Structure formats: C-alpha cells, structure tokens
Amino acid sequence: MQSVFKTYNRFPFEITKGDGVTLFDDTGKKYLDLTSGIGVCNLGYNNKKVKQAVSDQLDKVWHTSNLYESHLQENVAELLIQGMDKKVYFCNSGTEANEAALKLARKATGKTKILAFDHSFHGRSYGALSLTGNDKIKEGFGPFLPDIYFETYNSADALNKIDSSFAAVILEIIQGEGGIVVGDYTWLHEVEKKCHQNNVLLIIDEVQTGIGRTGKLFAYEHYNLDPDIVTIAKGLANGIPVGAMIGKNALADFFGPGSHGSTFGGNPLAMSAACAVLDTLDEAFLDDVQQKASFLWYFLEKEISSLDSVDSISGKGLMIGIHLNQSVPVNQVITQLHEVGILTLSSRGNTLRLLPPLIIMSSELLEGVKKIKEVLQNETVSL
Ligand SMILES: Cc1ncc(COP(=O)(O)O)c(C=O)c1O
C-alpha cells in the first residue's frame, strides 16, 4: 500500500471473504478467526440477520439527518437501557462515545478534573487521547487537555485521589489495549463508592468489554456496578460503524438541543444492524457465551497455562490475554499462527489477545487452543 498513511503495521495479506468464524485471504487461505476484527464482529462474518436488517434498510433509506424523528434510534436506545432510567446519545466510534462522555461530565458537574488510569485506552481524538494512559501513542501530539490525572489501575492510591474536586472517573472493567488487566471486584466497588460520596461521575468505557464480550451485555453487570455513563461501540452493529453513550436521565438536561451532535451519528444502517445485534443477544445467547467461555478457560488452564512460553493468563468470558514470556515475542507467535490458519491479536506487555466471535462453537475454540499450544510449544524460551 503506497497511497495510504502508514499509521498501521499491517500483515502482508488481505482478508477478502468471511463466513461465521472463518475468514479467507486473497490467496484463498482459510483462517479460524479469534479476533472478531478487534472485538467488533461478535456475531461473526456474513451474519444473515444483520445482513438482512441492513439490506432491508438500504432499500428504504440509508441517510437522512438528525433533524427528524428516528424510530430506529429509539428502538436501539430502548434495547440498550433495558427499562432503566437512562438515555442514549449515538455517534460513530468508541472515541466519539468517550468524547461525548467527557463533554457531558464536565458540563453536568461544572467541574473539569477527570481521573483516568495508566495503560488505559479510550481513543485517539484530543479528548479521548487525553484520557488515555499510554505515553507512546501520545508522543509528539501535545499539549493535551488540562486537568486529566492518571493513577495506577486497581490501586489504593487511586481511591485516595478521588475527592469532590473531580468531575468524573473513567475506567475500563478490563483494560483491553492495556494488556487484558481485569478490574478487582472490591476495588471497582470502592471506586464507585468514592465517586457517589463525592458527587463524581463514574464513566465506564465498555467499548471493548461490552455487547456480550464477557458473557453479559455489559461487563460491569458482573460486578453489579451502577455507572453514571457507559460508552460502547465496536460490537454494537457487528462491523457497521457506530458508537453510543448511555447516561443517567439526571444528566439529560445538560445534553439538550445544540449541545452536541454528529452528522452520521445514529445512521439508519448502523441502527438497523444494532437492532439485529441486540435482538440476538438475549439471555439464552449470553448464557451460551458464558458456557463456551468456561469450556475455553478449562482448556486454557489445562493446555496453555503450564507451557514454558506462558507466564499467566487473564481475562473474562471471551476476552483473553495469554501473557507470553519476554523471550517469545508476541508478533512472532501471531505470524506463526497465521501460517497454521489462526488469527489472533496482541496487547500491551507481550500479550497474545483472543477476542473470538461470540458465535464460535466449543469445537472451534478447542481447535484454536490446540494450534496455539503447538505454536507455543515450539518456541525457544530463555528462562
Ligand atoms: C476501551 C476502548 N475505548 C475506546 C476505544 C476507541 O474506539 P474506536 O477505535 O472505535 O474509536 C477502543 C478501541 O480499541 C477501546 O478498546
């Protein structure tokens, strides 16, 4: 590729076709996908229901504007808030959802200070990047937004830091780009308690963890948390660009007409896809994800965790980080897995990240584990 900015390190092949959990490259080579396109195509590729919904909508109208009523937006919003006293703002990406959250938090509280976490990832616009705890990807782009503070995730220092001078705390339940770091149950509750005691809004970024990834619609449900704002994107429309911010109704007056907006936000194609996705993610579907995840975790523990090349495994549901020994570079492993027809991802700290489509069958998960084991067993480890 010559004419496109090289903002991505790309592998030297193109994915040209997909069906279910199977992808094909431009040479016809077949892959078992354990990435979902970085947690997006949770219902797999060429999903019939999503495709039909988008195709039906294409025949009606694929763009109007936000100057008119939209029953599709209302439907998706209702499916997201599930009867709770909340409202939804629609946009086009996770970055935009966090941007909206940041703006709403500052306007609603009249305060500017935000607490975020080291190794977090919230996106790459100035607002979202300002909230992101990764100096490497911020290099050369400063200055960033003022009044953003960082603390160590899961730390007591973070709890001590939260006081009434803050507008909001923003966190991921599992840090995805940050190396699949799972939030501690007690710590998350303490954060929420300190937020509520000090009139600080709790923003939970569910862009990667949400839409069934961990076996619940939102990962915070495992923890019975009560966030003021939740941001989502990725899996919401199974690959049609979309983002959303869900906020408590008490915040609604601060996001009134003219306060925020987006030309494409809540686009009819994205909304029709999102309806099909959310309609699919019922209790039975999510229970099935949890069962498959238990099966996968059993085999990860049994087959992978004791390998010399593996230090530890972390994650929840179908969001998994296999932390490799430093002498086994993750990108080398990913390339070797390509050769045997498996697509995987990396994450911070030499982590092999798995985000398989949620529709994957147990037998396919087992096939993936076996191939990963074969590749990892052949690695030379210097201990
Ligand atoms: C937790 C989290 N927040 C925000 C984003 C940014 O989302 P997008 O790339 O859709 O802007 C990502 C993307 O990986 C993410 O993982």
Automatic annotation (TrEMBL):
CDD domains for this protein: OAT_like
Gene3D superfamilies per the UniProt record, alphabetical: Aspartate Aminotransferase, domain 1, Type I PLP-dependent aspartate aminotransferase-like (Major domain)
PROSITE patterns according to UniProt: AA_TRANSFER_CLASS_3
Class of enzymatic activity (EC top level): transferase
InterPro entries with a match to the protein in the record: AcOrn/SuccOrn_fam, Aminotrans_3, Aminotrans_3_PPA_site, Class-III_PLP-dep_AT, PyrdxlP-dep_Trfase, PyrdxlP-dep_Trfase_major, PyrdxlP-dep_Trfase_small
GO molecular function: identical protein binding; N2-acetyl-L-ornithine:2-oxoglutarate 5-aminotransferase activity; pyridoxal phosphate binding
Domain of life according to the entry: Bacteria
Binding site for N(2)-acetyl-L-ornithine: R124, S262
Cofactor note: Binds 1 pyridoxal phosphate per subunit.
EC number: 2.6.1.11
Names of required cofactors: pyridoxal 5'-phosphate
GO BP: L-arginine biosynthetic process
Binding site for pyridoxal 5'-phosphate: G94, T95, F121, D205, E206, V207, Q208, T263
Other remarks on this protein: May also have succinyldiaminopimelate aminotransferase activity, thus carrying out the corresponding step in lysine biosynthesis.
Similarity comment: family membership: Belongs to the class-III pyridoxal-phosphate-dependent aminotransferase family. ArgD subfamily.
Stored HAMAP family: ArgD_aminotrans_3
Subunit structure: Homodimer.
Protein name: Acetylornithine aminotransferase
Lineage: Bacteria, Bacillati, Bacillota, Bacilli, Lactobacillales
Gene designation per UniProt: argD
